[in-house]
Amino acid sequence: MTAPSAMNANMFLEEPKATNRHTLCGYAWADVVRSLVKAIGSADMIRAQRWAAELVCSELGLGRLEAALFQAWAIHVNSALPGWCQLWYTTIEQIRGFWSKSGGDIKAVRNTPIVRQIVAEAVAILVIAAKKPLPELPTSADVFREAETTRTRLRAGGGAGDQRITRLVWVPSSDGADLRTIGNELEASIRTLQKPRMLFWIAWILTLDTQTEAPPAKERGPAHLPIKQRKSLFWYATTLLHEIANDYTFLSVADREGLFNLLGLTFPKLGTRGRRDVITAIATCIYEHIEKRSSLALTAPVAPPSTTAIRAGAANIDRVYISIGEEARRYMLEAPSIVGLTAEAKAQLQKPVKMTPGDQINLAFSLTDFRKP
């Protein structure tokens, strides 16, 4: 039987919760995401499962998990396993279904066995998959340095000429004239297998998108995004890549659509760096697919990780969630807070304590073994 004091402590102990600043166990959001991506890159199954579960358990964490795993795929796996994106897109749809049925109750979602299992398996696949470094994009400084030389070359007639996909994607009534040239150059660099030029034009588009004098563009982003983001040049480049992927039959139809749907779904949480990584990874996957098709050498298709290895990586996932629950409760006990305070009371608590000379003497006597003679 539980002692009365323990029962009272449990009754009034506040439920652990994440905030805008930290996860359920008190870690900064950015630290958890970085640790998850790093663990996947170093094939550390234990740490990858631990940090993924931390995001599942935390309020506001599911969206971050969706984007973090997609970015981890882009940075560390990319063309080594492009079909993973369709799996992750399907997994996200399932998790969001559980979220809706629970009424947005994260506690119900994290305690659902199927949610724990499908997330753990998606993480395990990334950890086990062969690793392939992501090509580095030129920086904005590189783009600005080459901009004038490139413009001079294009004005002199040294451009790629009209390309078939760009002719279909570019809309004269909505898209600026520069986008036609940029689209032709990007498409030509992919078709002619000039990887440095492909990376340069992707960097050019992303850099131009941040400039106030960026050319106008048609709305191409998903409907759930704000209108400004739907008109981003990012989606012009993405649409070009999507159509090129269709043209060269990159992946199956389901896997191809899952890849680009996943990009639309996670776009708000990816951030600027994540979007750069993902679009670079997609372009690289398409480029390498075309490169293999153009080669006379026979190459075996990408083999996914074995089912046995995936199940082994997700085998002890319930223990991970139990340990997170225990750590979250310890965090609550170590970092107590007073709820229901007014703004004035909170500000007063943050001020340093002011003590009178008498208070200081009393405190000194209480901290020493003072005895009257």
Topology of helices and strands:
Blueprint (H helix, E strand, L loop, with lengths): L3 H9 L16 H13 L3 H13 L4 H16 L6 H18 L4 H5 L2 H16 L11 H16 L8 H6 L7 H15 L3 H15 L17 H4 L2 H15 L5 H42 L12 H7 L3 H18 L8 H8 L6 H10 L7
Task: Write structural notes for this entry.
Helix content is 66%, strand content 0%. It has 373 residues and is an all-alpha fold. α4 packs antiparallel against α5, α5 packs antiparallel against α14 and α11 packs across α14. The chain starts with a helix and ends in a 7-residue tail after the last helix. The chain has 3 domains: 12-129 and 305-329, no CATH class; 140-294, no CATH class; 338-366, no CATH class.
Keywords:
mainly alpha, globular, disordered N terminus, disordered C terminus
Order of helices and strands: HHHHHHHHHHHHHHHHHH
Cα distance spanning the termini? 50 Å
C-alpha Rg, in Å?
27 Å
Estimate the mean pLDDT confidence: 86
- Give the tally of β-strands: 0
Give me the number of helical elements: 18
Question: Strand percentage, roughly?
Answer: under 5%
Subunit arrangement of the protein: single chain
Overall, the morphology is globular
Biggest sheet architecture: none
Can you give the helix content as a percent range?
Answer: 55-70%
Number of domains: 3
Structural class: mainly alpha
What is this structure, in a nutshell?
The chain is an all-alpha fold and 373 residues long. The protein has 18 helices and no strands.
